[in-house]
Amino acid sequence: MSAPTKITGGCLCKVVRYEVNFPEDHDFKSNVRTPECQFSSRPFSELPHTSSFPILQLTPPQSVACFCSLCRKQSGVVVVHVHILPRSSFTWTSPSAAPSAPLANYQVIKDNLRWFCTACGSYLAWEGNGIIEVTAGSVDEECLVGKKDGEGNVIEKGVGEQFCHPEGAVTWVNNSLGPVTEGIKGTRWKFSVAHGVRG
Asked: Mean pLDDT across the stretch 183-194?
């Protein structure tokens, strides 16, 4: 299967919609890279997924299964799968920026936005530092799973296996739930990938 060039998604009530146009050089399997890294001098309170560890400047993986408490609280699930993209490849396609629009964000950490629909509550994306993490569950079923026939059988496979690459990063494994989460494949990180501490 060739790599996708575009996907669409949105919230449960279908009012908030988005589109992703993947960069030509987007690497769907770059989850195990170990790029050059440097320690960050940014204050603890300004870092995504805060901890007391120094933060490393890493090229992020594309697919992540996150066990952090923030993602759990916002989504209501124990594992949130996200795909990381440059912010420039992501577009909100509806609604308009009108004050009554149901698209809103919540900041737990300064300059890090957690986007959701105020009408149905769907958690759609996390944004900060020039990237956006799109929640895999908000991708349209036809894009993620594939096209189905009248009996619900998949007749044309979607991009789920590439978008949720099974050997991606598994972050915040210090919040692991034993047998519930131990079977999730991927490079395990004690905190975020940027902390550089293997789990």
From this structure: 80
CATH code of the domain in which 119 resides: 2.170.150.70
Q: What is the pTM of this model?
A: 0.78
Radius of gyration of the chain (CA): 17
Domain that holds residue 120: 6-25+38-195
In contact, 152 and 146? CB cutoff 8 Å:
no
Which pLDDT score, from 0 to 100, does residue 25 have?
80
Domain count, the chain: 1
Omega cis (within 30) before 48:
no
Q: Does 87 map to a domain?
A: yes
